[in-house]
């Protein structure tokens, strides 16, 4: 599969330099980090949430757990995890569990964890379980310029 069409078109439209990093098929962020020989905190884990206002994506380091209670309180929203069926509907060109954190490519608002702003290099799912997108940390912050951010996750 390589990179999802929506993600590729979005990155090219915005003009962000990126590279694809292929790796053996994995099913978890920690295994992806090991397979790709990169640090887990550099990989973004994307979590799709929803409430009566719609969808929201939380982007956090793969080494962290989402603090859903803190996020609900911060945004004053009653968010819950989206169902698998919704993931396949929204991310129509991605494999289940391999969604990229650039919600704008899919018309979804994003909130990201401040811990991601410390990385010089950022990696995230390209839409399948065998490729990561690699961008500079500064480029990631530029892409997230209009997104809300804060401490929304913690290490286990």
Class per helix and strand makeup:
alpha/beta
Q: Which fold does the CATH topology refer to? A: YbaK protein
Number of domains: 1
Can you give the mean pLDDT? Answer: 95
Low-confidence segments? none
Quick one: overall form?
globular
Helix and strand run? HEHEEEHEHEEEHEE
Tell me what portion of residues adopts beta-strand conformation: 25-35%
Query: How would you characterize the largest beta sheet?
Result: 8 strands, mixed
End-to-end C-alpha gap: 32 Å
Classify the helix fraction into a percent range: 25-40%
**Alpha plus pi helix count:** 5
User: Can you tell me the CATH architecture?
Assistant: Alpha-Beta Complex
CATH level 1 name: Alpha Beta
Chain oligomer state: single chain
Within CATH, the superfamily carries the name YbaK/aminoacyl-tRNA synthetase-associated domain
DSSP strand count: 10
Question: Would you give an account of this structure?
Answer:
The chain is of the alpha/beta class and 156 residues long. The protein has one domain (5-154): Alpha-Beta Complex (YbaK protein), CATH 3.90.960. It has five helices and ten strands, in the order αβαβββαβαβββαββ. It has helices spanning 5-14, 29-36, 68-75, 84-90, 137-143; strands at residues 19-22, 43-51, 54-61, 65-66, 80-81, 109-113, 121-125, 131-136, 148-150, 153-154. The strands form two sheets. Strands 1, 2, 3, 5, 6, 7, 8 and 9 form an eight-stranded mixed β-sheet that branches. Strand 2 and strand 3 (54-61) form a beta hairpin. The N and C termini lie far apart (32 Å). The model has no long low-confidence stretch (mean pLDDT 95).
């Amino acid at each position: 599969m390589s990179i999802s069409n929506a993600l590729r078109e979005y990155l090219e439209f915005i003009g962000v330099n990126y590279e694809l990093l292929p790796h053996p098929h994995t099913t978890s962020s920690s295994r992806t980090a090991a397979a790709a020989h990169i640090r887990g905190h550099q990989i973004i884990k994307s979590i799709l949430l929803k409430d009566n206002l719609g969808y929201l994506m939380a982007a956090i380091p793969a080494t962290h757990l989402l603090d859903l209670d803190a996020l609900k309180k911060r945004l004053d929203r009653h968010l819950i995890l989206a169902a698998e069926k919704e993931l396949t509907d929204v991310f129509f060109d991605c494999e289940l569990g391999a969604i990229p954190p650039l919600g704008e490519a899919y018309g979804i608002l994003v909130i990201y964890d401040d811990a991601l702003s410390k990385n010089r290099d950022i990696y995230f799912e390209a839409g399948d379980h065998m490729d990561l997108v690699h961008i500079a940390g500064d480029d990631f912050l530029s892409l997230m310029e209009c997104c809300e951010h804060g401490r929304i996750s913690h290490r286990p």
